[in-house]
Structure formats: structure tokens, C-alpha cells
Amino acid sequence: RYVDKDVQRALRMFDRSADQGIGVSAFFLGVIYRDGVSVPKDAGMAATRFREAERLGDENAAKALKVLKTG
Questions:
Q1: For each successive 10 residues of the chain (71 residues), what is the average pLDDT?
Q2: Three-state SS for 68?
């Protein structure tokens, strides 16, 4: 499906951007894994990405990580 291909492409792009220090990209990866957007839901991977985003200065990451931990 076209949509799935777009999401896979977005995952690669966000991953590359996060590796380059762009916090919002790590945050969006956390959201994708938290919500299971074209990938299996994975709270551990979401937490890893939210922590990375927080380290990179994303303002939403700490709140998302807290919500993820508390359910």
C-alpha cells in the first residue's frame, strides 16, 4: 500500500534527522512507536525515542515520556 510506503519512508527520514541531532524527529519517532503507526506498538522503543528527543531539547518529549510511563 502507498500509505505504508510513505510511513516507512518517513521513519527513515525521521531516523536520519534524529541521528543528526534534530529533537523533533526523535519525538515523532516516539509517537509513531507509541501509537503503532504502520509499526507494531512498542512502548520501549517509544520511551527510547522520547528520551533521545528530550536530550536533544524537544519541549514535548518529557511530557510524552511521563504520560507513557503513567499510562
A1: 69 94 96 92 97 96 94 75
A2: helix
